[in-house]
Every structure is written in structure tokens, then in C-alpha cells.
Amino acid sequence: MKNYLTIFWVFFLLIYSANAQQEEEIITKNEWLKHWTDFKPNLTENNEPSQILAGEIAEDLTLSKRETYLLLGHVFVKEGVTLTIEPGTVIIGDYKTKGSLTIAKGGTIIADGLETDPIVFTSNRSVKKAGDWGGIVLLGDGPSNRFGRASVSSLYSELDPKLYKNTNYGGENVVSNSGILKFVRIEYAGKKEYSSSGSFSGLLLAGVGSETIIENVMVSYSAGDSFKIWGGEVNLKNMVSYKSSGNDFSLNFGAKSKLDNSLSIRFPYTSNSRGARCINLKSYDKKEDVDFSKKGTSLVAENLKLINYSRDLEFDIQAGLIKEGVYVGHHTLLNIKNSMISGFKPAVIFEGKIQANQENLEKIKITDVHFKNCLGYVLSKDSGNNAALENWYSSKEFLNMFSKGNQLKILIADAKKVELENKKAKKNAVIDKNVAMPFDLVEKAPTLPGCERATKEESKECFKKKMRSHIAKNFHYPEEAQQNNIEGRVLVLFNIDSNGNVSKIQSRGPDKSLQEEAERIIKLLPKMRPGEKQGQPVTVAYGIPIAFKSL
């Protein structure tokens, strides 16, 4: 046990030290973050609750800094009622009852904190984790592209029927005012209610109008999205999303927003298994639910820093932990400029339904963007569009730049010339079957039992499916790790050589026992038919995360 504690604390101190340096660097480079943000909220001890908020708030109410408030279950501010929160007030979401705060359509919240005295919403657990409580839901009567009455009722399970009226949103009032959220922190929110079909976000803005003030809001350690916008025409300034499991900024259902001077910081180990993004831009989930005669979702974004922090970027990319930074869905508009996107694969990706023609590309503007340490700039899920996208956004008139490591920024237009020359040289080069090739670049994946009849196009999906099946069949959660509540994801990177043998297994994770178990599972893989490139057997590098989580 003593050895385990030593290993754990060495690991903790290394991670803590690295994160502390990163956070100090962030603060130093961004003066507007000083005083009101907190990148280590788990170290802050809050007072025990002295007041309880529950059910429906039916009269104007002011929350005082001298008290600490507990959100017990789902709390609603009804239509026509104003909830005022003094600067410095702490509101705690209850873990057992999945506390949340919803401002109904026609209700108002005035949470006007100060730079030196922010308002804080956080968890009531001693050891805080993402998803400890629900989050904040702000509903307005702004427009959306959905058919019929829009509602967020799916977020709440076992809700008292008389409270459902507080879950509707939407209308035609573009300039509606739902209040103020300014110098506010929202920590450890995003609870998923297992008996409902929805998942809370740190802050959900549904049908919120342009007169509402949303400035200097930080969402950290959210298990869902940090900021989610459904419909409405709300603008956001000085937003911070830190270590979210979901998307940092997710827009849908005809939302029309401006996002200015904001920061998104992702870590591969905290993103959910679906691969969350900094910006997720969509106009619908299902086509049949929206009215295409109405405008789709649009975002104007300026002065953004979208950052993925990896200790080993190449390892994390090969392990499949890093996805695109920005996703652009069908029937949307995007104008992003004067921003930086760092550490993603690729930086921006288009839904395959978006054809790379001039009409569509003029609706998606990417100008003066610095792509740093990204594997790909602007790509499409339909690979047939990629040549057109590269040619369009690498034009000098867009002033888009790229850099790697400490390399100076170079216009993509100039870099593409060098890249094309390198591609020609690689095409004519002889393939070295002993040099590991990334899984995504091989033409045919290694063949696991059960995939023998898969075509070249089907081989990768079949390989991934059989890998998941192999892990599930051989998985064992180390008993000591369970007893000590050690959980997390272990990243395993390994090669399948040109003879079909597994070799060079590496792993990284929160504890040595979990790493050893993950490596044991990979060592049980059978010999395979090797992967192929240009019809030749090659060594393939593959990475996969294995999750260990206590129930």
C-alpha cells in the first residue's frame, strides 16, 4: 500500500505541477482572466449551506453574500419573477438530488458579480467531480428553427407535473431580456439523469434574446457541454471553458450568436469517448424536427483561443483521444477570425453533407486563424471535398497561418507549396515495412479473426469493432484499484508489425496497476494478417483508450 501511495503522489505532483504551470501561463498571457477565474476549484473549501432553495421560486428573491445556498433538486424561477444574486455569493448544487437552477421563460436572473468578487455555483461534495449536480438553464422567448413548442423537459426526470410549464422556451422576441450573468463561475455541473433522455450542461441558453448580458462566465469540469445554445440571438463575451467532458461551445436549432474574446482549454484525458469539440455547430439533430424555411444556426467568433493540452501530442493523436477542434454542420453559417486553434486533428471539420462549392464556402469564413500543432487544417468528413477545401482556405487572401512547436507562424498558402513537394517525394519513395505507419493512413487494416471477409473499405471498422470485443471479453478491474477508488482511462499504443505480431506496447494512465492490466489485454491479441499500404504489408501503429470506472 505504501508503494502505491508513493506512485500515486508522484503521479499527482507531476500532473499538478504541469497543470499549475499551464494555468499560470494562461493567466499571465490573458490579463482579463485575473482575479475572477479559478483553474483549481477542488482546492477551495466552501461554507456549509445556511439556506435551502427548492421547488418553485414564485416571488422576487435576493440571495445574499453572507449566506451559502443549497440547490435541492430542480429549482425553478417562474415567469414574471426576478432572482437577484449579490456579488460573492456561493450557491451549491446538491449531489444526491441532482440540484439545478432553471430560469423559466419570462423569468429573470440578475447575477451581476464583480471581477474581485465573482458569484460561484459549485458542488457540495468533499471530493468534487464533473457531473456532481445539474447546472444552470436560462430560457427565453427568442426564435428557433424547431417545429411546434420547444421544451427542455427531457432534462428532468420525475418532475412534478405542475412544474412542466417552466420548461418551455421560444417565441419571436429577438431582443428579449432574461437578465445578467457576469463574473460567474459554474463548477462540476453537467449531471446526466439516467431516467431522462437529456443531459445537463454547465450553462444552457435556450431561446435567449440579445438584450441578455452574458459576460465573464467560466464553466469548469462539466460532464456535459460547458456552454449550450439552442435558438435565440444571445451574444457571449469573455467566456472560459476548462476541462469539459463535453463540447465547450455547442450551438443548435437556429441559434444566432456572437462569441468574442473567449478561451477553451481541453485535455485528452477528460473528453468523453465520443470525442468532444471546442465548437460544435449544428442546425438540427433530426431533419424532421426543424423548419428549413427558417434560418439555420450561425456563429460569428473573434479573438478565440481553442487549445488542447497534451503532454505527448503524437501519442494522444494515435491513441484516438484527439478529434477535431471545430465541427461545422449542415445548414449553418460560421465566421471565425483572428483566433488560434492549437493541438487538434484536424483543426476544423465539415459535415460530409456540405459540398465544397463557392456558395457554401462563402457562408463559412475562416480568416486570420493560426493553426498550431494541428494534424490537418480544414477538412471534410467526405474526403472527396478535401482538395477543394485546402485550396480555398489556403489562399493568401484569408491570411490563415500554421506552425509546429516553436516554429514561427507561416502563411498556409506558402506552406502548401512545400507540402505538395513533400507528398510527391513520398509517393515515389519505397515503403519501409519496418517503419510504423499510423492506422488512419493504411489502405487496409490488420485482420483480426472475424474480419477475413471484410473489404478494404470495411477493414478498419471491423478491426475497431473486434478490438472493442476483445477488450470487453478479457477486461479485469484490478481489485486493489477498485478498493482505493482509482479510476480513469489508460491509453495504450502498440504496433502490429509486417508479420502480424503485436509489439512495442506502451501505456499511460492514472495508476500502474491499471496500465499493467491494459497492457495484459493487448498482449492477448492473436497474430493477425498485417495491414497493407499500396498492396504491401506494413507495420501499423494503433492506439486505444481503455476506461476503468467504479460503479
UniProtKB/TrEMBL annotation:
Protein name listed in UniProt: Energy transducer TonB
Matches recorded under Gene3D superfamilies: 3.30.1150.10
Organism: Flavivirga algicola
Pfam families hit by this protein: TonB_C
Signal peptide: 1-20
Compartments reported by the entry: Membrane
Membrane topology label: Single-pass membrane protein
Keyword hit for Transmembrane: yes
Entry keyword annotation includes Transmembrane: yes
Upper classification of the organism: Bacteria, Pseudomonadati, Bacteroidota, Flavobacteriia, Flavobacteriales
Key words of the record: Membrane, Signal, Transmembrane, Transmembrane helix
Domain TonB C-terminal: 462-551
Main location: membrane
